[in-house]
Amino acid sequence: METKEIEHYFADSTILQENPEEAEELVNLAGYQVTKAELFAHTREPAITIWDSRIKFNMACLRRFPGVTHIQILIHPEQKRLIIRPCDPDAPDSLRWARGGGEKELSNRDLLCKIFAAKVFDLMGWNPQYRYKMMGKPAVCDSEMLYLFKLTDFELFVNGKKSKSYLPEDWRNYFGTPVDEHEDSYKINLADGYITTNKT
Q1: What is the DSSP letter of 65?
Q2: Higher model confidence: residue 3 or residue 132?
Q3: Mean predicted confidence (pLDDT) in 145-158
Q4: How far from 174 is each of 32, 33, 163, CA to CA, in Å?
Q5: What pLDDT was estimated at residue 158?
Q6: Which terminus of the chain is more exposed, N or C, with fewer CB under 10 A?
Q7: Most confidently predicted of 29-33, 100-104, 107-111
Q8: Which residues pair with 6 in a beta bridge?
Q9: Which residues contact 80 (CB under 8 A, 6 or more apart)?
Q10: Is the dihedral of CA 160, 126, 39, 85 positive or negative?
Q11: How far apart are CA 29 and CA 32, in angstroms?
Q12: How many Cβ atoms sit within 10 Å of the Cβ of residue 117?
């Protein structure tokens, strides 16, 4: 940008002088809530969608684990959390979550799982007529990169000519998790109640 152009932008501007009397305001974060990302557009964020007979991870999930074709799915029934853990194709209970591999570009795929889906729907008390979408967050356990999904933080979709989404009723009265609880809400310990799924 040329000097004349810069001068033009500042020609009618008022120069702000630093005022020593205007000190930075000290903020106490007590009472603040970290706003849930689900309240914003999130089509490009990592997510899992669960139907009554299948599940599917979007491409944003696959891109977080480049070249990974197989995962294990871990469930914590009490905390109602789901974790995906990259694994070797021949690892016990490994699931192929992507098409392609090797020299072929990876793409996402449906994982048919009537029994698994039924168990999740039963655990969560979900309506099998709807599908449920959860956003994921990166997590680390013992230096192992994982992806965490809170099953309680879902977006519900009613199938029809035009898909409509709904959020949980109890979200109406708050924006998100209190600041002092937010970091702890994403901490995980795989030895604390997580179970691996089988291939049903």
Answers
A1: S
A2: 132
A3: 90
A4: 10, 8, 25
A5: 83
A6: N
A7: 107-111
A8: none
A9: 123, 124, 150, 151, 152
A10: negative
A11: 5
A12: 20
pLDDT of residue 200: 42
Rg of the chain in Å (alpha carbons): 23
pTM for this predicted structure: 0.67
Distance CA(147)–CA(100), nearest Å, equals 21
Nearest alpha carbon to residue 42 among 134, 157, 170: 134
Helices marked H in the chain — which ranges? 3-10, 59-64, 114-124, 179-182
Structural tokens at position 179 = 């600041």
Check if the beta carbon of residue 81 is closer than 8 Å to that of residue 185.
no
Residue 51: HSE in the Cβ half-sphere, 13 Å Cα cutoff:
12
Alpha helix stretches (DSSP H) within 125-190 = 179-182
